From TrEMBL, chain A:
GO biological process, one term: transmembrane transport
RNA-binding keyword on record: no
Native source species: Gymnodinialimonas phycosphaerae
Membrane topology: Multi-pass membrane protein
Stated name of the protein: ABC transporter permease
Compartments in which it is found: Cell membrane
Keywords per UniProt: Cell membrane, Membrane, Transmembrane, Transmembrane helix, Transport
PROSITE patterns tied to this protein: ABC_TM1 (PS50928)
One Gene Ontology cellular component: plasma membrane
Keyword Lipid metabolism: no
Automatic annotation (TrEMBL), chain B:
SUPFAM superfamilies given in the database record: Periplasmic binding protein-like II (SSF53850)
Gene Ontology BP term (one): thiamine transport
Protein's UniProt keywords contain Signal: yes
Family matches, as InterPro entries: SBP (IPR006059)
GO CC terms in record: outer membrane-bounded periplasmic space
Gene Ontology MF, one: thiamine pyrophosphate binding
Name by which UniProt lists this protein: ABC transporter substrate-binding protein
Organism encoding this protein: Gymnodinialimonas phycosphaerae
Keywords from the named record: Signal
One Pfam family, short name: SBP_bac_8
Range of residues in the leader sequence: 1-25
Length: 274, 345
């Protein structure tokens, strides 16, 4: 009876997840298994193309680089914010979250203006005499990664502030009173306790970067095509829905695998979990 | 008091229903799918008078060629009565079975169009406007004027060129030009044509997908040369006055804008009436004078000033290169892959 009540209570949520998450994804992916040429033919075709392998690898590389950089800068920022007095903390959190209030396209455009040939960076460097003529900074992997870090780092900061705030001050004081250096305290106390937050932040940033469309499109162009932009090309321009669904399926597999690996890693690294 | 409130609310509801009655009385809803540019002018010149004629309500679906054609494909040709597309995409729609043949007898104004516009893709939609794809360049930054398609390969233009992406209307034309430069037919010998495309790669900073993107690239100083469609020239020169349309010895490339009747149209008769209306000399004349679309009706007479910027007049039209999109679409998947291999690696 108790079990039945549990099922009844969870059924609306289960239904919602099935309707809005599982069924659309399953419907998208199922197309790839019924394509002419065999069950796995679209996947064989995808991986037999050097260009498509490059796109997948490039997407993974950009997402991984963005995640690592966001982890580094996000942790530093979140640590500083979490140790601030309450009034200053509120101000800093609002500042950190503020970019999220504007759209991704607007934030990507901001980087077009900063990194452009007549942009802020080139103009400043020319004015300082560092360079003689403007450098071509846009449409490169670097410009995509820089913009992605800027766009997704608020997510990382928000997650980490919550985790770092929950680390008791007593622990840090105890560590310090036992003679640990600030670095040792950071590495041996703060970092392990922040691991769950780091993993959640990493998953969020990696997933968002891996699936992003607007930023790679605007700052990378066709020379830095990523899975999102490639999917758009296959679906909306080539009208090749099987190929587009194959790209979508590969993206889902990469993301689910990443989440599973990260969750497992979190369990292993988090001393509180065991 | 409560009863009074209820009565008041009921009165307001009835009044609202009555005020909506004229709209409900209109017998048909006619759906036009187009880009959405010049919306106000088109509403005034085409939609308002057509609504009066047909006693129908006209509603719109807007978006770029690919998006709208894709939506029509997802709905198996239903939900739209007539669709405006460039000829590259209307050919694709024909191949996908999304349009129905046009009954020429119901559209007598087709006979008054230039021959190239009457049936550019067989029995399907006529062209209602003509444009050009050519080369634009910033005359302040490019010392030697561009006079030929082959100039795109010039060494002094390294990193200064933006080409339209292969999936846009003008993109595949790069492949055709590369083939001509190599002295081969790009359809018959894609290896040689794409070897030519690979040779231009060092000059190309990036490919663009929309006219606005291309204008931004000029405005921010990223590029000095590009391939462009003539409809973007006005906005481009407003943003960068030193941009010039190159006078090419080997001629610009023609692009036709077509109107087709969707295969699932519920108002086929109205759709034919719409086509006939849009192709009339009066409407074509007004559209040209108001700077909306270049005319294809032979009865349109423009002054030199009105014709400036349009693809207009026998001399200009005879100098254009026309493209057959049938074989192009048949090769496009292979071309997209080859293009990606060159520009996306």
């Amino acid at each position: 009876m108790k079990r039945l009540a549990g099922w009844m209570l969870s059924s609306p949520a289960t239904l919602a997840v099935s309707l809005f998450l599982i069924i659309p994804v399953a419907a998208t992916i199922s197309v790839t298994f019924t394509a002419p040429g065999g069950v796995f033919a679209p996947y064989v075709e995808f991986f037999s193309s050097g260009f498509q392998r490059t796109v997948l690898w490039r997407t993974f590389e950009v997402a991984a680089l963005t995640t690592i950089m966001a982890l580094f800068f996000g942790l530093l920022t979140a640590y500083v914010v979490s140790r601030c007095p309450p009034w200053m903390k509120s101000v800093l959190i609002v500042l950190a979250v503020f970019p999220l209030l504007t759209g991704v396209v607007v934030r990507s455009f901001a980087w077009l203006i900063i990194l452009g040939r007549n942009g802020v960076l080139n103009n400043t460097l020319e004015w300082l005499g560092v360079i003689e003529r403007p450098m071509a900074l846009l449409y490169s992997q670097t410009s995509v990664v820089i913009a992605m870090i800027y766009i997704f780092i608020p997510l990382m900061i928000l997650v980490l502030i919550g985790v770092l705030e929950n680390i008791p001050d007593d622990l840090l004081q105890a560590s310090s009173s036992l003679g640990a250096s600030p670095t040792a305290t950071f590495v041996q106390i703060i970092l392990p306790l922040a691991t769950p937050g780091l993993i959640v932040g990493a998953v969020l940033v990696f997933t968002a970067s891996f699936t992003s469309y607007a930023t790679p499109h605007l700052l990378g162009g066709t020379r830095q095509m990523m899975m999102g932009t490639f999917l758009h090309q296959r679906a909306m321009v080539s009208f090749d829905w099987v190929s587009a669904s194959t790209v979508a399926a590969i993206m889902v597999v990469v993301i689910v695998t990443t989440v599973l690996v990260m969750t497992r890693l979190a369990k292993r690294l988090n001393p509180m979990a065991s | 008091m409560k009863r009074l409130h209820t009565l008041g609310a009921a009165t307001v509801s009835v009044a609202a229903m009555l005020s909506a009655a004229p709209a409900l009385a209109q017998s048909e809803t006619f759906v036009v799918s187009w880009w959405g540019f010049n919306g106000d002018a088109l509403q005034e010149i085409i939609i308002d008078p057509f609504q009066e004629m047909c006693d129908c309500e006209v509603i719109f679906e807007t978006g770029n060629n690919a998006d709208r054609l894709s939506r029509l494909q997802l709905r198996s040709g239903e939900g739209v009565d007539v669709i405006y597309l460039t000829d590259r995409f209307s050919q694709l729609g024909i191949e996908l079975g999304l349009f129905q043949p046009v009954d020429r007898a119901q559209v007598p104004n087709i006979d008054n169009l230039y021959s190239f516009a009457q049936a550019p893709q067989g029995e399907y939609g006529p062209a209602y406007s003509i444009g050009r794809v050519g080369i634009v360049y910033n005359a302040d930054e490019v010392e030697t004027p561009i006079t030929s398609w082959n100039d795109l390969w010039r060494e002094d233009l390294a990193g200064a060129v933006s080409l339209p992406g292969i999936t846009t209307t003008a993109g595949p034309m790069v492949v055709l030009r590369a083939g001509e430069r190599a002295g081969v037919d790009a359809y018959a010998d894609p290896d040689a044509a794409f070897a030519g495309v690979a040779e231009i790669q060092p000059n190309v900073l990036t490919n663009y997908n929309t006219g606005s993107e291309m204008i931004n690239l000029f405005s921010t100083g990223e590029i000095a040369v590009s391939m462009a469609q003539d409809f973007a020239l006005g906005r481009l020169q407003s943003a960068v006055p030193s941009v010039a349309w190159a006078d090419l010895d080997d001629g610009d490339i023609a692009t036709l804008n077509t109107i087709n009747i969707a295969s699932g149209s519920e108002n086929v008769e109205l759709a034919h009436q719409f086509l006939n209306f849009v192709l009339s000399a009066e409407i074509q004349q007004t559209l040209a004078e108001r700077g909306v679309d270049a005319p294809v009706n032979t009865g349109v007479d423009l002054t030199e000033e009105q014709a400036a910027g349009w693809t207009y007049g026998d001399e200009m039209i005879s100098s254009l290169n026309f493209v057959d999109y049938g074989p192009m679409n048949a090769n496009l998947d292979d071309w997209i892959n080859r293009w990606n291999e060159i520009f996306g690696m």
